[in-house]
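For consistency, the fold was encoded as C-alpha cells, which produced the following:
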Amino acid sequence: MAVLFVAFFILLKMRLYDIWDQYNVQAYLSASLGFEVEAHFVPPPLGRAGDKVVVMAKMEEENTDWVGENLFDWQHAIYTVDIPSAGLHTPANKGHESMAYLTYVIDNYDSLPAIMAFIHPHRGGFWGAWHTDTPLHDNVDSLRRLRLDIVRRNGYVNLRCNWNPGCNANDKANAHITPEIWGELFNGTEKPEEVGAACCAQFAVSKEQVLQRPREDYMKYRMWVLDTELEDRSSGRVMEYLWHVIFGQDAV
C-alpha cells in the first residue's frame, strides 16, 4: 500500500508541476495580485501602421474591438468565419484559425506587409488565453513586446516561448501528423520521425519568409483543410503543428 501511495504522490507531483509550467501559473497569480512581474522582453518602439498586420479568425459573437483600440499601429485583417456575408470571411468555417490565416496569405500574396502576426481573437485572461506567454496572457502585451527585428531575421517566430505543450518528448511523436498527411501536404516526402512545436497557432512571420513558397502551396494547404475528412478541430490541430514547417523551420 505504501508503494502505491508513493507512486501516486510522484505522479500527482509531476502532473501539478506540468500544469504549473504549462500555464505559467506563478507569473499569472503574481500579476493578478498586483505584484510586479519581471519583464523578459523590452518593448520595442511602436512601428507605423502599414508595415505590419494582425490576422485572426473570429466567430460573430466574439468581440475583437480590443484590436483597434490597443493595436492602432497595426493593420487588422479579422475574418468572421461563420458569416459568409461579412466583409472579411473565409470559404468555410473549418480548420479553426488556419482557414483565415491561409486565406489572408492567398488573397494578399502580391501586397503583403513586412510583418504578419497571426493570433487568436481573445485578448487575454487565464481561461481563454492561457497559451499566450505574458503574465496575464494578454495578446496586446504580447504584440507590443514582439521584437520585429527578430521576426525579420528568423522569418518565423512562435509567439509562445514555453515548449509545454507541443514540444515535450511525449508530444513530438505527434499522432496528429500522420505519414499520409505529411506526404499529401509536402509533395510526397517522408514524414520525419518527430514533429513538434510549441502550441497554439499564434506566430509572426516576415514577408520574405512567406514568399519563399509560391501562392500555389498555400492554396494547396487550404484545399487540404477544405477537403479532408477530418473535422474542424482535428484539421486545425494538424495545421497548428505544421506552421513552423510551412514557414521554413525544422520539424522540431
Observations:
- The chain has twelve helices and five strands.
- The first strand starts at residue 52 and ends at 58.
- The beta strands are 52-58, 75-80, 115-118, 156-158, 203-206.
- Confidence is low (pLDDT under 50) at residues 3-20, 39-47.
